[in-house]
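Q: Hi! First time doing this. I have a protein sequence and I read that you can turn it into a structure. Is that right? Here it is:
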Amino acid sequence: MTLEKRLAAIRKGFEDQADAAVLKVMHGATAALVASGQADRAVREGDVAPDFVLESTEGAHVALAELRAQGPVVLTFFRGHW
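A: Yes, that's right. Below is the predicted 3D structure, encoded as structure tokens:
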């Protein structure tokens, strides 16, 4: 199964059990984001991210450039708990 199909199945499973009011808010927020044009300006797979420095969970500062010097880097973003 492709990643796209797996994600669609996960989405459907969530939507099948989610409260209609919650889905309305989530779909509205997604539509507003797309309408704003921000989605068209989003970083895409294969794009080079701008350099940044973040604090690790241990309190150390970690620079993307330093990680890139060690090899390929995969960035993921966790938006937080709904």
